Amino acid sequence: MRATLTRDIALKQLDIEHAAVRELIETLTEEEMTRPDTIEYGLYWDQQLSFKDLLAHLITYEAYAVEAVESWQCGEKHLAVDAMQSESGGRRIHYGGIEDRRGFSLAEVLAEWERTQAALMETIRRLTEDEWHATAPFDTGVPTDLGGILEIILVAPPRPPYRHLPVHIPDVPAYIASLRKPNTF
Predict the structure, then answer these.
(1) Which of 48, 61, 85, 184 is the most buried (most CB within 10 A)?
(2) Domains in the chain and their CATH numbers?
(3) Average pLDDT of the residues in 97-104
């Protein structure tokens, strides 16, 4: 797959994504972030995620994207490339990152999100437009460039370009309201 967006547009979209996540982090209480089964939307019907779980999920894709660039620069294909192109592999990545961080405190997940999103942005900023559009140094079966690899990992449908949060929280005010609605039981 070839990149559908330039590096600069990808960075702008990621800035929007990270600002939206940061705004939620600053708005939600610790209890709201750790309350289970508050994320209604996503690819899998059986998810019962808290906002903390969602952060772990977002971290996973961004960490894999950084690793994929490093692998690319060594002439290797990152494991997420093929995994994201299969239903079982995508499911493994979706839930794997959450499970890997299940025992982390909220503070640890928040700190890792900060480090990972900063690393992703710095990694992409260091790439030139030529590197972004460079042909894969490994067999892919279809014409593929580095920007395309990042899109496979970060932008797999139905995600909007470089925006993962709206897949899981399409309406932020409604999400916040649902967390703060009085329990009527």
Answers:
(1) 61
(2) 7-178 (1.20.120.450)
(3) 92
